[in-house]
Amino acid sequence: MLSRTLLLLAAIGVLAVAAGPTNRTTCELPCEMDFDVQVGKAYTITGVPLPSTGPDGFFINLQDGPRNSTTNIGFHLNARGQESIVIRNSRIGGEWGKEERGGGYPFVEGQEFQLLIMVFTDRYSIYVDGRLYADYMHRSFVCLLNIMRLAGDFQLNDVQEKTHWTRCTPVPTL
């Protein structure tokens, strides 16, 4: 389904995808993986939400170093199953920004999901199971982010980093 969505976007001139190297990895949660976050990269996380043992559900961070109280988090996605919400936010200089909560709750406990985070010059586009879920505007410099942190109540099956896609402008009609 995801590949069909991306092919459709490419066909209408919104997105061009070229084959490029894919880095695949997985780890035991919580974990931190080294990724140099850059415009033009896409990160695919495949996993299964587990019964939540607490209010925080699971989260995925793109951050500028190992976890500590001063780590800047350029992108924070927190899926809270008990509340049926997904929060997007950033923590810069130790301070959390304003939470974004719209979009509903696309995850089903016990059912595998595929989350795609695409990094554009001005935003992250988040897809869940091949459908655009939300856009999140950058609040920090993307080039400073070098770690993906994953934690919480989900089974991590796979993480992929893919390169070589670009944003295109549609061809104007005459």
How would the blueprint of this fold be written?
Elements: H1 2-11, E1 15-17, E2 22-25, E3 31-34, E4 42-49, E5 58-63, E6 73-80, E7 85-92, E8 95-96, E9 113-119, E10 123-128, E11 131-137, E12 147-152, E13 154-162, E14 165-167
Antiparallel strand pairs: 1-14, 2-13, 3-12, 4-9, 4-13, 5-6, 5-12, 6-7, 7-8, 9-10, 10-11
Your description of this structure?
The protein is mainly β and 174 residues long. It has one domain (25-166): Jelly Rolls. It is built from one helix and 14 strands. The strands form three sheets. The protein has a six-stranded antiparallel beta sheet with strand order 2-13-4-9-10-11, with no helix packed on it. Strands 3-12-5-6-7-8 form a six-stranded antiparallel beta sheet, with no helix packed on it. The protein has a two-stranded antiparallel ribbon with strand order 1-14. The model is unreliable at 1-19 (pLDDT under 50).
The portion of residues assigned to helices is under 10%
User: Would you tell me which CATH topology applies?
Assistant: Jelly Rolls
Give, in order, the helices and strands: HEEEEEEEEEEEEEE
C-alpha-based Rg, rounded = 16 Å
What is the CATH class?
Answer: Mainly Beta
For the record, the CATH architecture stands as Sandwich
General form? globular
Mean pLDDT: 83
Please indicate the percent range of residues in DSSP E strands (runs of 2 or more): over 45%
Biggest sheet, spatial arrangement of strands = 2-13-4-9-10-11
Number of strands: 14
Q: Return the structural class.
A: mainly beta
